[in-house]
Structure formats: structure tokens, C-alpha cells
Amino acid sequence: MNKDASTTGEQFRITQDQLQKLLDVLRDQGYETVGPTVREGVITYDQIDGVEDLPIGWTDEQEPGKYRLKKRSDKALFGYVVGPHSWKKFVYPPRQLLWRMHRDNGTQKLEEPSEDYPRYAFFGVRSCEIQALAVQDKVFMGSDYRDRYYALRRKDNLIIAVNCVEPGGTCFCASMDTGPKARKAFDLALTEIVEKDQHYFLIESGSDIGTDILSELKSDPATDKQIARADELLEKAARNMGRQLDTTDIKDLLYRNAENRHWEQVAKRCLSCSNCTMVCPTCFCSTVEDTTDLTGTSAERVRRWDSCFTLEFSYIHGGAVRPSEHTRYRHWITHKLASWQDQFGTSGCVGCGRCITWCPVGIDITEEIKSLQDSESLTSDEAKAKE
Ligand code: SF4
Ligand code: SF4
Q1: Tell me: the pLDDT tens digits for 53-63?
Q2: 46, 76, 106, 313 — which has fewest CB within 10 A?
Q3: pTM value surpassing 0.70
Q4: Pocket flag, ligand 2, residue 270 (CB < 6 Å)
């Protein structure tokens, strides 16, 4: 490819060996590349050095409360969707040291957290996950109160997206308008095409950095037929989402239904385990903990992930603001889909489906909204009969 050519938005065809070359270029440019890889029976995100670290020939089966890896009949590199981890753990880690204090011979020394963060290349980012990073950018950097640690870790991230041609059983990004094709905020985007007799990738650049990296690869301009095939796969993926969520009037629906008896029905199943918030790529609740060692010579303050599903999270002045499961579930879903819009100007849900898959009792955010919608169309006699 001609290095001087302007390629943003144009599609090129590369083979698998050029994907390895891409990883080599990233390493040579000083990036720490993290991407999907199989660990302990799930696909997670971790450091990858070569194409062989990707989950080659694996797929994931996902349903409410169920996740299984399964072998595919082909050697697809990206033939699965999202696992329990998200990119959140790299930019907003589960545990962040705020300060540490040491006492030594009567003097006290303050240790600040290291700010020497890796220059990350996120490899294999799904469209819904790009949107989740954008949501978190608003939360942590979108006002006068910027989160210093998040901003430092997020700086200079390189995003290599993968368009989803096979949605999972709990995905609903098409309903949330966040996928399955990455439309913005990426440096490079890949579409994998596996046919009976050929296996290749379409690649497009979304930034000047992406264009420079792409110029290092051996590629051919994609033909009209190859582009049409990729479009066809993406349209099919959008039509075949595992789930759907009707977002019409969703904010007012939730506000109108704060006292709906349905919340008590959900609470009978909800364990308040907080799994849904831990796996969610946009949830951002945290708490601050102070600890000292047993000798009393050092102390530290850390910020760690917390969840609005714990009783302690809303504990103030001798009591919890949300003492019951039903108030906590109602709070979570109302924040995600309604008050998040008032607070940050966007939905707090990107339709990744993780909270459905990883809920041990299979509570499904799309079904809960549907139940509220249905309850509004029931007559009072029908509603009573349902209780
Ligand atoms: S609420 Fe559920 S579906 Fe929506 S972004 Fe969070 S984990 Fe994904
Ligand atoms: S909705 Fe499911 S995952 Fe979330 S707290 Fe309740 S039981 Fe746990």
C-alpha cells in the first residue's frame, strides 16, 4: 500500500500473516497489546504477543445465566462475542492505590501511586465496547471533575476494532444503536470473513495513526464483491441479535413505574450478588478503603470497585438508603436506562449482554423492561391476576 495514500474509510484486504505483522508493528511502536485470549474456560482480555494467543477456532454460547466455550468447525480468530471482562479493567482498574504512608524512625514518608502506565493497544474491541469506553470517558473526564488516573490510563490508547458478524445469544447492540459495526472512535477496524475456500480480513483506518500503521502492512484494496460480502454479514448480524430492547419512551417508562409491583417480583430472584455491575463495561461505582499494617508503620488508601447492589453502598447516617433488593434492582436499571441520560446525556447501557449472561439466576434486563411495558398495557384485573 502506498504510504502517502489517504486511506481513512477505505477498505483493504489482508491475510492472517498480515495480522501477525500488525501485532509486530504495534510492539515495535512501543504499544502493550491486549486482546482476547482463552483463560480458565472463558475468553478474557490479556496481553497478547501473536495471533496464536487469540481464541482460534473457539466460540462462546451465551444465554441468561449461562456461558460455555465450544470448538468451532473453522479456524476463525474472532468467532465469539464478549466475555466477562471488559476494557474497563485497563483504564479503571478494580483496585487503584491513592496513597501509601510509611513511618520510619519518627519520620513519615508519603508514597504516591506510580503514573507510569503502559501505552495500550486494545486489539479486538467490539463496537458496543467502543461505545462503553465513550460512556466512561463522559463519566470520568466529561466535566470539571476529571479523574486523573482514568485520564492517564486512557491517554494514547490505540483501538483496533473487530466488527461482529456473529452476535451472541444475549447481545442487543442493534437495539441500542451501538453495533454490530464500529462506526467511529477506532484507529483500525477489522471484519473477518471465513468462507469454505478462503479466510481473510477487511481492514479500514479510522485515524491518521491507523493509516500510518496500515501503511506498514501488505494489503490490496478490497473489491466491491468483498465489501458487499462484509456488509451482508453485518446486516445479517444486526437482524439476528440474541435479544432486543424497545427503547421507545424508556426514560419516562422507568420514571413512571418507580412504584410498579413488578420490582418485588424481580427481587424474589435477585441475589444482590453484584455480578451484573462487575461485568458491566460502563458501571463505575467505587468505594475508598483505608488499611494499616499490623505493626502500625504503614497505611494506605485504595479505591476499589463497588456495586449499588450491596447494602453498604448506600449506607449513610446509620442506615442504608436502599435497604431492600427491589429498591436496589430498581435503582440499577433506572440509572442505566433513564437517569444516566439526564446525568451524562447518553444511555448507560450499550447492549453487550454481559449482565444477562453472568447473572447467576438469569435476570434479563431486556425482559424486565418488556415486563414493565406489558404491565402498562394490562387492565387492573389482568395485573391482579398476574401477581
Ligand atoms: S447494563 Fe448489561 S447489557 Fe447494558 S452495558 Fe451493562 S452489562 Fe452490557
Ligand atoms: S440481577 Fe443478577 S447479577 Fe445482578 S445482583 Fe441480582 S442476581 Fe446478581
Answers
A1: 999 999 999 99
A2: 106
A3: yes
A4: yes
